[in-house]
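Archive maintenance. Older records in this collection stored only the sequence; we are now back-filling the structure field for every entry so that each record is complete. The fields below show one back-filled record exactly as it appears after the update. Entries are processed alphabetically, and diaminopimelate decarboxylase is next in the queue.

ARCHIVE ENTRY
Title: diaminopimelate decarboxylase
Organism field: Sesamum indicum
Length field: 490
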Amino acid sequence: MLQTMAASNLVSQTPTTLPTKSHQLSSNPFSVNPILRFKHKPISRSLTSLQARVLRAVLSTPEPKTQNFQHCFTKSEDGFLRCEGVKVEEVMEVAEKRPFYLYSKPQITRNVEAYKEALQGLNSIIGYAIKANNNLKILEHLQKLGCGAVLVSGNELKLALHAGFDPTRCVFNGNGKILEDLVLAAQAGVFVNIDSEFDLENIVAAARIAGKKVNVLLRINPDVDPQVHPYVATGNKNSKFGIRNEKLQWFLDAVKAHPKELKLVGAHCHLGSTITKVDIFRDAAVLMVNYIDEIRHQGFEIDYLNIGGGLGIDYYHTGAVLPTPKDLIDTVRGLVISRNLNLIIEPGRSLIANTCCFVNRVTGVKTNGTKNFIVIDGSMAELIRPSLYGAYQHIELVSPPPPDAETSTFDVVGPVCESADFLGKDRELPTPTKGAGLVVHDAGAYCMSMASTYNLKMRPPEYWIDNDGSVSKIRHGETFDDHLRFFEGL
Ligand code: LLP
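Back-filled structure field:
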């Protein structure tokens, strides 16, 4: 209560200056000492794909229509799931507890490199959307790889600074940014997107409190249908995000009226998430550069186009050809160059989702009516996307089932007291034995960051595997004692 009051009073007080960069925790609670060091074994998947390519080259047969699915988690011929050559089953044996999240650090690097290559020849910022995954160790890694950060709260901003992100490569977004967070943003010197009339007023107030001019972009809602689940569509005309083009003049006049507080540097849009057609980005970029022309025509020297994030990934693991970062950038490259713009992109999912599996143990198998269930220790509390959006995330066992295991259709469910508690529906899987390992793939984005402690299922630990096959913990699992701490002294 006292803390809440103190926070809301912040605006009327002189704000304390924000420390700028490279804050290290005084004592690092995250042990990154490798807990496991496996001999790195080459994955037979890469040999097979290489052999296939050589064979195709020799026979001069065309590449197949589907992509040869390359993933850091691969099942080799012996039936064991490996991550960067390490058996997931072996990690399960040493993990602090289950379920847990397991990442490939090299895959994170590869995903960033793909964007960097795609952006060659353009002035650009890769703003990693922290909401997708806010693990501090992952943020530090992304920052070292040269990413900026995209933020939606004061705490995300503080964490980004803590992880060492350069504030001049960070963007503060959101339709409900509160004044005290905007003051932090103004002090830190990050880009701020104007989302509404009241947001503009608050940014002006924050600039005055911080005594700093804020570099702002106008978040324009281009009304382009991203063809995704309605919960992750953001650029339609009835969306709660951004401003409508018919109000553009009002915003330009308001910015002009506050030359001491605001410097308009660009325009931003974000269409939605899980987008699998790059034409959609192109359509929006065409509209956006037209707005930029109009804004420049009124005397503003703006040179940033921010096209948001939203590129989808192959959740289905069917090898379907999905647009790559290069496809995305190539579709807007000409427009960006034609207007001599700096390009900001805000990827979350396409940088981090495929780097991680959510690793569980099977508690048991049961049948009710016509339904078979695999009950696991993980649940909607740790991974809510299937329950919330009906999202598909691929599921498989980590080790070969017994030879006589019958394959059936199962719902994979958790122990949480909700019928919506499922990780997958109608999955063809071999009947697992009690205690078998089972993973939910592509769990790097919007899984741990959306986890709750419903039913007092404490948030799970996280690990990553490095290039040399070593496994390190990158976040402790929460404990019951952590929970009791919220009540200490009350
Ligand atoms: N920029 C803005 C302004 C955004 O709103 C978002 C995501 C991103 C960038 C990053 O989008 P990405 O590249 O990750 O698609 N919880 C949902 C996703 C919500 C996305 C919200 N905004 C899910 O689990 O699919």
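Update note: Residues 356-487 form a domain with the Lyase, Ornithine Decarboxylase; Chain A, domain 1 fold (CATH 2.40.37.10). The CA atoms of residues 397 and 438 lie 4 Å apart.
Entry marked complete.
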